[in-house]
Amino acid sequence: xxxxxxxxxxTGASGVQYGIRLLECLVAxxxxxxxxxxxxxxxxxxLETDLSVPGRPAEIGRFFSERFHAEPGQIRCYxxxxxxxxxxxxxxxxxxxxxxxCSTATLSAVATGASRSLIERAADVVLKERRKLLLVVRxxxxxxxxxxxxxxxxxxxxxxxPANPAFYHRPRTLDDLIDFMxxxxxxxxxxxxxxxxxxxxxxxxxxxxx
Length: 210
Fold this sequence. Notes:
Elements: E1 6-10, H1 16-28, E2 33-37, H2 39-48, H3 57-67, E3 75-78, E4 96-102, H4 104-112, H5 118-128, E5 132-137, H6 144-155, E6 159-160, H7 174-188
Parallel strand pairs: 1-2, 1-4, 2-3, 4-5, 5-6
């Protein structure tokens, strides 16, 4: 595949739908994806979606590959402590990494370089290799600890993107709100999309609307 690879991690914050939709869009854009799900993320998947996602990394990779019609090998899924995964080393660092959704626990671990799991280690590698890291933080309200961690990472060049969808595109469904955030992530990754009109572009009228 010609497109550079990306790492996508889903952690245990509410809003797992953002990460699933982002994965779908990355697959459609022919981007190879290194996929990581924390154990809490798998719990949230069961709570917030109707998806029957299996528990083993290889099975998770096959599940999403079949669901989104990925090319062979396009989605590679790793376990939380799979230290032999390419994303654990600077010699195989992806061009960018997105944590979506990003829990405040993961935010804290990345800010302090904890590297206790593969997700945390992969983020640490992206930081040390000066690649792009986006954290779609999902929490409200933010405590002083959360804000200090975000500021610390922002000063390192990390893109802090709280899951705060806008309404200027007049969303009518939950999918519209999800797509707004996913579109902003894709913009920062410089991946073309048509998920929503941009600011200043005409909105598509619905039936019965003048």
